[in-house]
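Sequence decides. Consider this:

===
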Amino acid sequence: MATYLTPALAWRRMREGNERFVAGESSHPNQDASRRSSLVENQHPFAVIFGCSDSRLAAEIIFDLGLGDAFVVRTAGQVIDDAVLGSLEYSISVLGVPLIVVLGHDSCGAVSATKSAVDTGNMPVGFMRDLVERITPSVLTSMRNGEHEINDMVVEHVKQTSKRLVDSSRVISAAIEDGRAAVIGLSYSLAEGRANVVSGIGEV
């Protein structure tokens, strides 16, 4: 059963699926009627993907996954809030998922908007302001490190998001300490289709 995979084996399965997608050789597993029927009573995903909502970042497609394989949580700029943390804790404590994937991508609109707000001092209106405020620390850290490109800021934001998940959630940090789970940070290339590792917490 997928739930009993180690974090390392779960990541290997994700990586192999992404390699098939990059090569144009996706196998589209677990997408038929029998798989659908087998999942009516329960689910045993082997990974939880916390990614950006961008329409080009369709989680199951870029990792060549099917029904029941991944528990997916998405917000613009993969911004953390209480609902996100609750969803991730559910995946770890109730579903027993061994791997949390934090998925950012190049040319991210939310990170670009945050960089613009930092540069100009003009904050967006409405709830978009909340997104920008939550991404600002990552943008400022990137700038302090002499990295001013959007894609550098995306990588920094993935790293900070991964660390914040662990710092914020005792459920997640305890699972990592026990070796039951790990967090891996990825930056996805829209042109190439490849998800590159930028950080890791726990044994992967």
Q: What stands out?
A: The longest strand covers residues 99-105. The helical segments are 7-22, 33-38, 59-62, 82-93, 109-120, 128-144, 150-168, 170-177.
